[in-house]
């Protein structure tokens, strides 16, 4: 183990990268380090141009982004446009899934004023609290994060002194001192759910990491630290723990037939018992509350027409 | 190391202050084995005595850890260094800086001062040789301007020790 000289530009470099610094040519080593530092500096700079949560934009901005790009993507965006009308970008800082979920879910409550959903999720949040306690987490490590989420959930319900407008929800979602705390709340919930059902999640975790990471190690290194990216395991766990169905629409270059492109999606439907309406259950009958657009390495929020 | 190496001090946020007070209470009730923290009125800097575990290379040795908390703790990791003389260890530099992932990239607000202490003691206990990291002199020279270990780009090659 060694350190590399130079200021750290951001936290995205892989700390587990096995770079035997002492064994490579010193000149090469400095060059690599320079390049990596430059790359991560560029990434950090690019990321900061986008607020944590962007404005709602028409889907046409997506087409414009790929104007001179892959014809498959352009076709897919056209197909996407038949169903979806707009997109809201999130910052690409490794927290985009959780941040997108946060905004989309709170916005749904604000617009639907669905008190039954608020009550249901509040009950599940309490179950998550019990899960963490049973796993041995000290209350003080997570209670501030739980309190802040419940406060936001409460505030999007209208007609109270503490109620907030849609504009205020956007402002809060861009305020690091609130936004990051809620992202961290979801990380706690996700980690707790993965550990609580470790036999269920273990094969997925073993399948995605080359190393023989245990569930415990996975949560410690890939769920609980801020900035660690999310994939199926995180989404499944969060959706199950809170009982919130999530749709992820995939925009990538994969296709079977260039003349008939299909835009794939996957619905994460919480396991029975957690569902919005007890008894309901199949993916055909459960409507996703949160819809996210996935492009390799990044999630944005997607809106139906 | 002198106190000048501390990061620029901003006052702890309300939430950080609250959290640290709770950690302090928890520490007093249930301190991690092998550690002693003399409670002072300075919530933002803890100086903690570490005792090498019996049966390890560091048995009967005692060192001091200095823990400085940033204003937005626990979202941001505390700065943790040994007050020189630091233990001779392949991951501990002579200026007290510690190469341990949870202190930097892998920090999470789910961790606590107590869990950091346990990780550090475990790192000491699993050591099989008392020596400095291979690049100790180069690194320490580069830190002479009082640079915080949190500004270092660390590579964590080896999780065996």
TrEMBL record, chain A:
InterPro entries, sorted: OTU_dom, Otubain, Papain-like_cys_pep_sf, Peptidase_C65_otubain, Peptidase_C65_otubain_sub1, Peptidase_C65_otubain_sub2
Residues with site note (Interacts with free ubiquitin): 250, 252, 294, 299
Domain OTU: 85-272
PROSITE patterns linked to this entry: OTU
Enzyme Commission number, as recorded: 3.4.19.12
GO biological process terms on file: protein K48-linked deubiquitination; proteolysis
Keywords: Hydrolase, Protease, Thiol protease, Ubl conjugation pathway
Keyword Protease tagged: yes
GO cellular component, one term: nucleus
CDD domains according to UniProt: AtOTU1-like
Catalytic activity entry: Thiol-dependent hydrolysis of ester, thioester, amide, peptide and isopeptide bonds formed by the C-terminal Gly of ubiquitin (a 76-residue protein attached to proteins as an intracellular targeting signal)
Active site, renumbered: 93, 96, 298
A molecular function GO annotation: ubiquitin binding
A Pfam family the protein falls into: Peptidase_C65
Domain of life: Eukaryota
Residue span of region Disordered: 1-20
Family: Belongs to the peptidase C65 family.
Protein name: Ubiquitin thioesterase
Organism of this sequence: Vitis rotundifolia
UniProtKB/TrEMBL annotation, chain B:
Molecular-function GO term, any one: ubiquitin conjugating enzyme activity
Taxonomic path: Eukaryota, Viridiplantae, Streptophyta, Embryophyta, Tracheophyta
PANTHER family: UBIQUITIN-CONJUGATING ENZYME E2
Reported function: Accepts the ubiquitin from the E1 complex and catalyzes its covalent attachment to other proteins.
Short name of one Pfam family: UQ_con
Enzyme nomenclature, EC number: 2.3.2.23
SMART domains from the UniProt entry: UBCc (SM00212)
Swiss-Prot/TrEMBL GO biological process terms: protein polyubiquitination
Species assigned in the record: Vitis vinifera
Domain UBC core, chain residue ranges per copy: 15-161
Enzyme class: transferase
Name of the featured protein: E2 ubiquitin-conjugating enzyme
Domain of life: Eukaryota
Cellular component GO terms held in the UniProt record: nucleus
Gene3D superfamilies registered for this protein in UniProt: Ubiquitin Conjugating Enzyme
Protein family membership: Belongs to the ubiquitin-conjugating enzyme family.
Protein keywords: ATP-binding, Nucleotide-binding, Transferase, Ubl conjugation pathway
Positions annotated as active site in the UniProt record: 99
């Amino acid at each position: 183990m060694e350190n590399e000289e130079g200021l750290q530009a951001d936290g995205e470099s892989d700390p587990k990268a096995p770079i035997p610094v002492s064994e490579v040519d010193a000149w090469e080593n400095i060059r690599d380090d320079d390049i990596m530092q430059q790359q991560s500096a560029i990434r950090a700079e690019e990321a900061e141009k986008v607020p944590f949560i962007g404005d709602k934009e028409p889907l046409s901005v997506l087409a414009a982004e790929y104007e001179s790009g892959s014809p498959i993507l352009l076709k897919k965006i056209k197909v996407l446009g038949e169903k979806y009308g707009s997109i809201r970008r999130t910052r690409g800082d490794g927290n985009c899934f959780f941040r997108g979920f946060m905004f989309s879910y709170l916005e749904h409550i604000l617009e639907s004023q669905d008190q039954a959903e608020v009550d249901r999720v509040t009950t599940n949040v309490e179950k998550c609290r019990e899960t963490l306690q049973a796993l041995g987490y000290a209350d003080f490590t997570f209670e501030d994060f739980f309190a802040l989420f419940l406060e936001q959930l409460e505030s999007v319900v209208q007609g109270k002194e503490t109620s907030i407008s849609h504009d205020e929800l956007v402002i809060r979602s861009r305020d690091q001192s609130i936004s990051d705390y809620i992202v961290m709340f979801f990380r706690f919930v996700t980690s707790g759910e993965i550990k609580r059902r470790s036999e269920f999640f273990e094969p997925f975790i073993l399948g995605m990491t080359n190393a023989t990471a245990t569930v415990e190690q996975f949560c410690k290194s890939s769920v609980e630290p801020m900035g660690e990216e999310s994939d199926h395991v995180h989404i499944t766990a969060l959706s199950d723990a809170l009982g919130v169905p999530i749709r992820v629409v995939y925009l990538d270059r994969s296709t079977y037939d260039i003349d008939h492109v299909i835009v794939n999606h996957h619905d994460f439907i919480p396991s029975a018992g957690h569902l919005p309406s007890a008894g309901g259950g199949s993916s055909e009958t459960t409507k996703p509350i949160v819809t996210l657009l996935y492009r390799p390495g990044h999630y944005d929020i997607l809106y139906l027409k | 190391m002198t106190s000048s190496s501390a990061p620029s001090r901003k006052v702890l946020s309300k939430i950080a202050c609250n959290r640290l007070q709770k950690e302090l209470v928890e520490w007093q009730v249930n301190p991690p084995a092998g550690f002693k923290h003399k409670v002072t009125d300075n919530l933002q800097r803890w100086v903690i005595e570490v005792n090498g575990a019996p049966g390890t290379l560091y048995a009967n040795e005692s060192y001091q850890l200095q823990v400085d908390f940033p204003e937005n703790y626990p979202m941001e990791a505390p700065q943790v260094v040994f007050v020189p003389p630091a233990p001779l260890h392949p991951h501990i530099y002579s200026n007290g800086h510690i190469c341990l992932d949870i202190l930097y990239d892998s920090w999470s607000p789910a961790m606590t001062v107590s869990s950091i202490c346990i990780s550090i003691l475990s790192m000491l206990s699993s050591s099989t040789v008392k020596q400095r990291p291979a690049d100790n002199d180069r690194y320490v020279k580069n830190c002479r301007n009082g640079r915080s270990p949190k500004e270092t780009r660390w590579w964590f090659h080896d999780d065996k020790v």
